[in-house]
Amino acid sequence: MNINTTKIISLLFFIFSVFYLYTAYQIQVFAFDENAPFNARTFPIYLGYAGLFFSGLKLILPDPNTIKVEHKTLEYKKTGILVLIAIIYGATILKVGYFLTTSFFLIGSYYFLGERRWLLMFMLSFPFVAAFMYLLHGVLDIYLRDPFLKLIGVMG
Amino acid sequence: MIEGILIGLTTALTFQNIFMVMIGCFFGTIIGMLPGLGPMTAIALMIPITYGFDPATGLILMAGVYYGAVFGGSTSSILLNAPGVPGTVATSFDGYPMAQQGKAGKALAIAAWSSFAGGTLAAIYLLFLAPSLSKVSLSFRSPDYFALMILGLTAIAAFSSKGQFIKAMMMVILGLMLASVGQDSLSDITRFTFNNMNLTDGISFVLVVMATFAMSEALTIILKRNDPTAAAKQVSLTELGSIRINKEERAKIIPRTSIIGFIIGVLPGAGATIASFLAYGMERNFVKDEEKEKFGKGSVHGLTAPETANNAACSGAFVPLLTLGIPGSGTTAVMLGALLGFGIQPGPRLYMTNPEIFWSVIMSMYIGMVILLILNLPLIPYIARILAVPKNYLIPLILFFSITGIYVMSFNNFDIYLMIGIAVVATFMRLYDFPMPPLILAFVLGGLMEENLRRSLLLSDGSWTFLWDRTLTACILATTILIVGWQIYKTFKSRKI
Questions:
Q1: CA nearest A137: which of B404, B204, B59?
Q2: B82 versus B39: which is more confidently predicted?
Q3: Are residues B191 and A5, on separate chains, in Cβ contact within 8 Å?
């Protein structure tokens, strides 16, 4: 059998389905519901078996349309950095506040993607976020939590 | 029906709703133009904003984005030979050769008029068909709904990616698995939460859409070193030539291709892509040999047919959503998810319980088509400049909109991490051609599917005979079996070759 990445993904999906099925069988249902035609674990159990069936089928059947990805040409570094910046953004947004973290997230992302026009980067971060915040908070009345702006008295 | 039309007009013609259609069409056109970013991304990015409005306005905005994005896709197809959305691939067959011959303006004008005509005609079909189908669908029972959902999921898997039926079915199962996380709707028993309180209410629909479309598309562009705007730098977007066209060029073809497009749009899983290819192929067979020779070299017929059909299919896709509450495509699945977020359950009773939503969406389609025409025809050269926005700015802005969308909904770090995690997995799966629309459709339908299966099994005392007890259920199931059978046949046929 020719092992390719699609097969590996299918194998991972098969393992995931086994785990899902095992967890589905562990779902605690009410005693009176145990032998009912349908309870909280019925549908997940069917899904688990369906997952095993389709991933198993993909594993067993030959794959004439094999997709080959040239990993050398992929930009893992920039993608990884972007994901990392997004994680840092997620970690700080509640504590620092929407305005500052979002503006720094944008500046950081522009920079790591290769942008060096600082004035444009600034215009498309701080003033842009401020305008967007005004649209959400001021016009559309969508609440935005921002401890920093609250601290300096800009937001109520 | 007259009363309904009046209700719809009253709602759709308010200043706010007209403004929303304009914003939707404009924003949709811009996103649709950018290759790789389709209507699903455009609508997903709009969802957080729609929660600031009432449901009718929110849906009107999303509908505007939808047909704006489909039209926007045709602009990049014609100017750059880089279809913004799959539904406009067929447009590039003759649109791009026309642009190369110095008739870009004419090609864009034909696309605009054809989209307008196709969309308007389809909205008329929808106007007459939707209320009747709503009445018919009142006779649907749980087994029929369950079978219909199986059909929809199978169909979208069959049509979403050529030769990748099993992969698409794996995505369907994954979508249903993600939907099963959280409290069971009837017993309130928590499932797959692993004692994490953040998962008790399940995974947010907006989170899954943002992660699998907006965010993962942005990451894929970076990962593959694609530049969706690079081709624009090679083209002079201000020298498009005349936008004048004569009546002959758009008359005969539009009625028949709009019908084809509408019918294909109504079918679950099909949609604008299949509609446009089918219309293109059909038109090629209809024309005289002399005209047939021009196909692929800048034929007006070859451009008009897919453009009419793809916009008609967009309107057609609203039929199952509004009348059965079952979306036929990934895009309408996103809309269903957003409606459920508003606390509205589309379906046969929507027509009676929320007539203002039902009718205003249909009425706003007419307004949307007019606005698309007014907006796009004179503004095309200017709007097309958006294609030159560097990806260094485009990608961070997409990520920013995605994360903001989740932040304003939950104020929860966990949701942001979960979204990033799902986006990374989705990006990796995209590399290997695992289609995302089936996952979204399955995720949206998961809860409804379980509910209908529960009712059906309880009514039949645990027996699966409910699948063939009713003629309607049996017919729907037979169609599903036919689709699966056809896919298996095609798989084995391709292996023999």
A1: B404
A2: B39
A3: no
| pLDDT value of residue B46 | 81
pLDDT-derived band at A86 (thresholds 50, 70, 90) equals: very high
Cβ distance B33 to B323 under 8 Å?
no
- Scanning every residue of chain A, which has its alpha carbon at the shortest distance from the alpha carbon of B399? A86
Residue B451 has pLDDT above 80, yes or no: yes
Amino acid at B333: A
Q: Residue ranges of the domains in chain A?
A: 5-69, 73-151
Residue B70: name the closest of B112, B122, B110, B18 by CA: B112
> Residue B93: CB partners within 8 Å, gap ≥ 6?
B280, B295, B296, B302, B306
Burial letters for A100-113: b for 16+ Cβ neighbours within 10 Å, e otherwise? bbbbbbbbbbbbbb
DSSP state of B263: H
DSSP B202: -
- Which residues have C-beta within 8 Å of that of residue B356, sequence separation ≥ 6? B7, B8, B10, B11, B56
Report residue A83's pLDDT band, with 50, 70 and 90 as the boundaries: very high
Tell me if A67 and B176 make a contact (CB, 8 A cut-off): no
Reported confidence tier of residue B484, pLDDT bands at 50, 70, 90: confident
Tell me the nearest-neighbour CA distance from B483 into chain A, angstroms. Answer: 16
Rounded-to-integer distance, Cα B58 and Cα B77, Å? 29
CB contact under 8 A, A136 and B420: no
The domains of chain B are located at 2-230+247-496
Measuring CA to CA, which residue among B449, B452, B190 is closest to residue A23? Answer: B190
d(CA A45, CA B177): 10
pLDDT attached to residue B489: 79
B272/B284 Cα distance (integer angstroms): 18
CB A130 within 8 A of CB A98: no
Residue with tokens 């509910």: B451
Closest-CA residue of chain A to B458: A37
Which tokens is B231 given?
């081709």
Are A75 and B457 in contact (CB < 8 Å)? no
| Nearest CA-CA distance, residue A44 and chain B, Å | 7
Check CB contact of B297 with chain A, cutoff 8 Å.
Answer: no
- Cross-strand pairs, B191: B182
pLDDT of residue A25: 95
CB contact under 8 A, B395 and A87: no
Question: Among B406, B322, B307, B367, which residue's Cα sits nearest to residue B109?
Answer: B307
Q: For residue A145, what are the CA distances in angstroms to A125, A126, A140, B149?
A: 18, 17, 15, 39
Distance (Å, whole) CA B314 – CA B72: 14
Nearest to B173 among A24, A50, A62 (CB): A50
Kindly provide the ipTM of the predicted complex, given to two decimals: 0.93
Distance of CA B304 to the CA centre of its chain: 21
State how far the alpha carbon of B141 is from the alpha carbons of A129, B134, B147, B473, in Å.
49, 13, 10, 9
In A1-146, alpha helices (H): 5-26, 42-60, 76-96, 98-112, 118-123, 126-133
**Residue contact B52–A142, C-beta within 8 A:** yes
pLDDT for B232 equals: 55
Q: Which residues of B are less than 8 Å from A6 in CB distance?
A: 167, 432
